[in-house]
Design goal:
The protein has about 190 residues and is an alpha+beta fold. The protein is built from six helices and ten strands; from the N terminus they run H-E-E-E-E-H-H-E-H-E-H-E-E-E-E-H. It has an eight-stranded mixed beta sheet with strand order 1-10-9-4-5-6-2-3. Strands 7-8 form a two-stranded antiparallel ribbon. The longest helix has 15 residues. About 35% of the residues are buried.
Length: about 190
């Protein structure tokens, strides 16, 4: 047997036994735990601790988004509908607005209700949003206002999945097939 073959087979075996073989992107080694202080869609002050005990998907966007946000959230809703019922009940999607000037708690609640009961809108002050987006390396930028005062917000579109203890596990991109997202959400739930 070649002397390079044994280490290769060993590393392949270890990779196959790894607990973090996500079909999406593993971020467990470099993303921080879930941590924030914001306002929920019911106007209550909340922190990350209020959402521990369920698997959590964290997504940043805004309700006036013409394309990326509704497509991403609809994709997450589709994936959640495809997991087993007991898994579905153990998932929450925290939709954090990067446009707190327009996205009041009431606006957030109406928006998240469209996607399903697992979706929860969060907002806060610009300082709170900036602290959280910096924590997860999310970028956003406001466009110029038009004559009516409307504007777009460019922002990152990845969603982050955390386990029940609030530890980062994997990242979901728009390009990830729904089947991969479903498989990873199911696997995350089984890990407890």
């Amino acid at each position: 047997m070649h002397k390079w073959l044994l280490p290769l087979l060993g590393s392949l075996w270890l990779a196959g036994c790894s607990d973090n073989n996500w079909r999406t992107t593993d971020v467990s080694e470099f993303m921080p735990d879930l941590d924030f202080e914001l306002v929920d869609e019911n106007g209550r002050d909340v922190s990350a601790e209020d959402y521990l005990g369920k698997n959590t998907i964290l997504y940043f966007g805004y309700t006036h988004c013409p394309d990326v946000c509704p497509i991403t959230l609809a994709g997450l809703a589709t994936a959640i509908r495809k997991v087993d019922a007991e898994v579905r009940d153990d998932i929450q999607v925290l939709f954090v607005s990067v446009d707190p000037g327009r996205d009041t708690p009431d606006v957030m609640k109406r928006y998240t209700n469209y996607f399903g009961p697992q979706f929860i809108g969060l907002t806060g002050s610009t300082a709170q949003i900036d602290e959280l987006t910096n924590r997860y390396r999310i970028t956003y930028e406001y466009g110029d206002k038009d004559e009516e005062g409307n504007y777009d917000v460019s922002h990152s579109s990845a969603a982050f999945a955390f386990n029940k203890q609030g530890e980062a596990e994997f990242m979901i991109r728009d390009s990830d097939p729904t089947a991969n997202v479903v498989a990873d959400l199911s696997r995350l739930a089984k890990r407890g």
